[in-house]
Amino acid sequence: MFAQSIYPNYVFHMYPKIKKGLFLTIVAFLIINCKPSDKNSAQATPSHALPDNFGDQVDRVLKGYLDLEIFSGVVLVAAQGSPVYHKAFGMADWENNRPVETSTLFDIGSMNKTFTSIIVRQLASEGKLNLSDPLSRHVSGFTDPRAADITLTLLLEHRSGFGDYHNEGYFELPESERRLNAIVERAKPEVLMFTPGTEEAYSNLGYVILGAVIEKASGKSYFDNVQERIVGPLGLKDTYLNDFTGLGSRLAKGYYYSPLGQLEVSAPTQDIPNPDGGFLSTATDILKFYRSYYYDDLLLSKDARADDPFFEFLREIPKGKATGAAGGFEGFNSVLLQVISDDFSIVVLANMDEPVAERIGSDILTLYRGETPEEPQLPAVQNVRIHYEKHDIAYVRDNFAALTVNFHPTDPRDLILNVLGYAYLYEAQDTDKALEMFKLNTELFPKVANCWDSYGEALKIQGDLTGAQEAYRHALELDPGMESAQKALNTINN
Question: What is the pTM of this model?
Fold first, then answer.
């Protein structure tokens, strides 16, 4: 099963993406000769030629994001594997005045998942596993009885019932407890989110578990598999898996705005690299990797591709439409968009907050089709906060849809006011503003239990225990299993 993005210009499959929880100077212009792999490379035919001023059009699009101070990174556009636009913008390290260059290394986030899915399929082609295998055949010990029904296919397609593993306190764990095997062991007693195969939920944990499957089936470490099966054969000389020694001067630091508008710094490598995310790479290597994945049989044989539902999905994409992969977390955002019929590629690596890379990629795709992109906007949380403080909560209510255009399409939109509400409540210690945010959220999303739970929390802090009780009860009517609301209600009642 594949999920489609709500962006009108392209289709995302579910294999690559991560979820979390954005100045600027043009630095370099570089045309490089990144040719496709020669072996059995399929040459697509472009549907139309690029206009002579295509680079100028891309520059104008990027200027809108630069003027808003929400983009810093690298943009690479290629036709038939040959770059037609490759530029770097902004700063890789503001503190040390180090600019982004086209060779700067970025954390690619959940693009790792594509590497992982390829290796699972390679092992299936070699007869070392079957995609229909139950997970327990390779990794056992999961205590939820429903885990017996999890297959490798369900893990690949985010339908296993596993969720995320970045729980509260995760980043305070020692490094050894944030590695593949430790994450898998902690997951074994967890209760699944749903019966395997009945729903779909994006799962970082599922891909870490696939990494453990790879190690068991191959007899080698996950990272050795990636190096020997993908990085080495493709000559990805600027892709680093888990040893980042000596790379400090090439790394981009991540930058993002807090809900209240403060520019924050994210570590160049936020977490230990794992099968779900965390490799470092350049736009050039990302282009080479995905073109090989889509067009030749160096990574997956013709037989493996013929029987794979994802490649059937690719064959059915209408001419001129694009598929893609993306990754991101606070301070980093990456995207690859590929027009399969035309062999036209767009790579954007950003060291500012998502979804800026995806927005820029979509805008360049719009240009490619001869259309005019919409003017860029500030990220939704920032846009709402600025207009709320300039106007009032009524303005936000009346213009919510227009103010929140720049928001990640896979995230629930009730998060926007929820994030702002908590920023006002705890960071700014302004209960009145927090209450306005939370109350409006219950009006805009009355069937979301978390909106009522947050509203109850703010009412409780303000001292309105009657109002808090009513809000918590409403939350529990919508979600009887919501522990936070139940605990809060018990506290008030006692």
Answer: 0.84
